[in-house]
Design brief:
The chain is α/β, with parallel strands linked by helices. It contains twelve helices and eleven strands.
Length: 307
């Protein structure tokens, strides 16, 4: 049974509130990809298309963002346009939530903060592109996404971790902290722009109904971590491995020369890779976002039918 949203600072849209009350399937969507992950005009077009895809599959989209310090679950057209076009949208992870609320900021939510808000709003399925993870390099730099996934009982549909990260270390972290990773119609963890990483998943699932049954078993056992459903980028949008290696090495070298690090590193690298690939990685990014939204909506529907 879905719970009602917590009243403090969480503002569900009328559509989301109605879906929660009537038990309709819901899919959470992040807003950092709109504000900081994709260039204009593709960011607005993609945000609108993701919501359209979720609706086409019979679910209700709940794009999450922070507006004037309120945690909005479900945005209207004007709010999405604001997130896509304003230069004053902060990037908000879980550590920043209280600061954003206290200062009445506008903010775009990362994977971590979207999961935190969505779970408290009563949403159980979240679609994104790639999760954060363990960063490359000698420092133990770990995205806030990972610990949030370890303590949030949600289904997270993604195409693995972003390719600019240390994928083997990220996979090991998830295993160590008990986060189940299943491959959706695949036998290994996707590598964002690439369909293969050589890293094993915990199990393969081929249908939304299988995911729903697995998630139900997790909840009955009292397991509190997320269930990651890893979906490969569509085959016709995959970036060839040789191209991917070359442009990633070039982007990493440029980041080092420019001394870009911390929370700015991943968007910097993804932007440079898009430029260096002539837009190929951007096309792949949008394709996997759209595909993940489709899968997430189907899973959300299967969850409702499972009850």
């Amino acid at each position: 049974m879905l719970k009602s949203p917590e009243p403090v600072n969480i503002v569900p849209s009328t559509e989301v509130e109605s879906a929660l009350a009537t038990g309709r399937p819901l899919v959470a969507l992040e807003s950092t990809v709109i504000a900081h992950g994709l260039p204009a005009p593709q960011n607005l077009d993609t945000a609108q298309r993701l919501e359209e895809i979720v609706r086409e599959r019979g679910a209700v989209p709940a794009t999450i963002a922070i507006l004037k310090g309120k945690l909005h679950v479900g945005l209207d057209e004007d709010q999405i346009r604001l997130i896509a076009s304003s230069f004053d949208i902060k990037k908000i992870s879980t550590r920043d939530l209280a600061i954003a609320v206290a200062n009445r900021w506008h903010g775009a939510t990362t994977v971590a903060s979207t999961v935190w808000i969505a779970q408290r709003a009563g949403i159980r399925v979240f679609a994104t592109g790639g999760i954060g993870g363990v960063h490359r390099g000698s420092l133990p730099d770990i995205s806030a996404d990972l610990p949030e996934l370890a303590r949030s009982p949600m289904i997270v549909v993604c195409s693995g971790a972003k390719i600019v990260l240390d994928l083997p270390a990220t996979r090991e972290w998830l295993e160590t902290f008990g986060v189940t990773v299943v491959g959706y119609q695949c036998d290994e963890l996707p590598a964002f722009y690439s369909r293969r990483s050589g890293l094993a998943v915990d199990a393969r699932v081929d249908t939304a109904a299988e995911v729903a049954r697995l998630f139900k078993a997790q909840r009955e056992l009292g397991l509190e971590s997320a269930l990651i459903v890893a979906v490969p980028v569509p085959e016709d949008s995959e970036v060839p491995e040789g191209t991917l290696t070359r442009i990633l090495d070039e982007a990493l070298a440029e980041a080092e020369r420019s001394q870009v690090g911390g929370r700015e590193l991943t968007p910097f690298l993804l932007s440079r890779m898009a430029q260096q690939s002539g837009g190929t990685t951007l096309t792949a990014n949008i394709a996997l976002l759209e595909n993940n939204a489709r899968v997430a909506a189907e899973i959300a529907g299967a969850l409702v039918r499972e009850e």
